[in-house]
């Protein structure tokens, strides 16, 4: 009986978590869930975003399912140092989740919701593989005497393992994104990617793209990309940019993999304080995160595909939450998905 | 008699420079031009991307007009360490050009060329103010024992002056972009922006936006932005992303300001080795850089506006180079602009 560490978190997190569990229960009756308060909810209950006990429970689980953390209540000061988000950094580092996978696949039923012209997004099907436990996020930093600094650090081993994750996910082409005309870390990144490609994945095409050029091409020629692999901060920016191709952040799931223990699954959207408590959040990003949990966390491909296809069908039949220009509530969208299972 | 340091550079640089000088000559007959080889052309002639003599000549000039530098011939190795680009870094630092201005204004005549839906780009008129002499571009870096690092550094003074440049360029709203939920430099940035706003520009609205959210909003709601001010690397990525709204990089000029001496003007596009020597490059980005030179470099607003309006009219009448889906050559586009002056 696989045990899931369920971390609903803040804002709409608990609302979409309820929806996802309903859908998971419909396809996998043997799963058990242990719920823990993290993020702002953790701060309110225990004074920290993530207790040691919760971290231990996550490590002992078979997979972690996270809603969303953060919100204005826990912004410690005007500088935006949102401590609720420490839960995220702790989980990523604590579980060793160095590979963040973000599939970007605009659904035909939602082409009209995309800011891009239809002919550009037709058949877009890309995967962004973001390095998640290195770079500026975890480097030494400080502020002193009117001067602040952050350090961007990568080792050969850190680059090797994330580049391999990119190649393993690709059928024919990997685009490695860096800023090798400026950064030493990017030059090392490019060297390592080139070597791993030659030694281990010679039949897959490898192309190098500068991050500024990639930011353009994501909009002007998104179909070009199959798998993008890049460092932590570039991946943060490019994956949010690419998410817009689908028309709504509310649709998108993400998987964080790579540790020896459990992996973590969560929607791309945040805690959305503006619509919290109204029952109108789009649960699809969270439901599809449940599908990724079934696939990558538990190795249950058939169940994962069943959930994904139920979501596609429900959208094809016209169900739309507010973020997609419709009026359906969280419960109505969930019901529509359940009906297609 | 204002003297312009003309640095045509590499690839299509010399081709578009010729076009821009023709247009400048039509509105400002008193300008003189001293031409210097920089970038790959400098490496071929002198062994360095930028000689001390050229730097001295630039410093002694009234304004610097640059074409484009770089190209595959001068990539020193597979890691993409393009030495031709040292000319850029040298000029920016040497002339103290800390403020890079990038106007993004999709022209109605070119709405069809944009990847975004027309209703989203109508009336977009934003200015990106990118810090240009700090951050990861100029911090300490190195590679040793399988580990590379780059340092992102900002001082209070560096942030103050660029934030001021942003407010001065704004009528009603400045969006300051950072990653204050992760970086110490961004927390300092946010504090300084907040203070400069309160002390010096209280009548202009200041909003803070995280870089990942900004990368989304640039596509989903570009009309929201008036002036964006941000650090060097974020500015590099976001300004290239935003440039796609206009449909072609070939259209866009940029001004680098802030030093005690001359400022620098150049098109946003690169040296475009693939179309070099064919006479088909779009000269409009370079022609409009000439307009910015007239405005910001020499204080000649009327002449600058005349050039800009001639470009608008030529496009309205239908002239299109290849990047815009047309067939007009560089010379034909230039002639079309000259006819409207
Ligand atoms: C909340 C924030 C710290 C986080 C990040 O930058 O990693 C978020 O943007 C994400 O992409 O998961
Ligand atoms: C060529 C490159 C180093 C440069 C930069 O990153 O500054 C370019 O992208 C730019 O925006 O001017």
From TrEMBL, chains A, B:
The lineage of its organism: Bacteria, Bacillati, Actinomycetota, Thermoleophilia, Solirubrobacterales. Residues 3-337 form the Isopropylmalate dehydrogenase-like domain. It comes from Solirubrobacter pauli. The gene is leuB. Homodimer. Mg(2+) binds at residues 212, 236, 240. It is an enzyme of class 1 (oxidoreductase). The keyword Chloroplast does not apply. Binds 1 Mg(2+) or Mn(2+) ion per subunit. Its EC number is 1.1.1.85. This is 3-isopropylmalate dehydrogenase. Belongs to the isocitrate and isopropylmalate dehydrogenases family. LeuB type 1 subfamily.
């Amino acid at each position: 009986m696989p045990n899931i560490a369920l971390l609903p978190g803040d804002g709409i997190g608990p609302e979409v978590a309820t929806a996802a569990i309903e859908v998971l229960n419909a396809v996998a009756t043997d799963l058990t869930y242990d719920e823990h308060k993290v993020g702002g909810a953790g701060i309110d209950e225990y004074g920290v975003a993530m207790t040691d006990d919760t971290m231990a429970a996550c490590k002992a689980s078979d997979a972690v399912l996270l809603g969303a953390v953060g919100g204005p209540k826990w912004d410690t000061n005007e500088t935006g140092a949102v401590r609720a988000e420490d839960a995220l950094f702790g989980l990523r580092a604590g579980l060793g989740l160095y590979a963040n996978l973000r599939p970007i696949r605009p659904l035909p039923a939602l082409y009209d919701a995309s800011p891009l012209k239809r002919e550009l997004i037709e058949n877009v099907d890309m995967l962004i593989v973001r390095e998640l436990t290195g770079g500026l996020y975890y480097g030494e930093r400080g502020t002193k005497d009117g001067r602040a600094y952050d350090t961007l650090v990568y080792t050969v081993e850190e680059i090797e393992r994330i580049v391999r994750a990119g190649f393993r996910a690709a059928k024919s082409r990997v685009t490695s994104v860096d800023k090798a005309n400026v950064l030493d870390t990017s030059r090392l990144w490019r060297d390592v990617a080139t070597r791993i490609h030659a030694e281990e994945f010679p039949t897959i095409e490898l192309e190098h793209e500068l991050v500024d050029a990639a930011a353009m091409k994501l909009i002007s020629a998104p179909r070009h990309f199959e798998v993008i692999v890049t460092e932590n901060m570039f991946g943060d920016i490019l994956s949010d940019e690419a998410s817009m191709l689908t028309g709504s952040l509310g649709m998108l799931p993400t998987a964080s993999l790579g540790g020896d223990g459990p992996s973590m699954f969560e929607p791309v959207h945040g805690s959305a304080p503006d619509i919290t408590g109204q029952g109108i959040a789009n649960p699809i990003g969270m439901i599809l995160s449940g599908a990724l949990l079934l696939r990558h966390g538990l190795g249950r491909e058939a169940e994962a595909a069943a959930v994904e296809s139920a979501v596609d069908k429900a959208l094809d039949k016209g169900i739309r939450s507010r973020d997609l220009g419709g009026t359906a509530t969280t419960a109505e969208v969930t019901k529509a998905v359940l009906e297609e299972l």
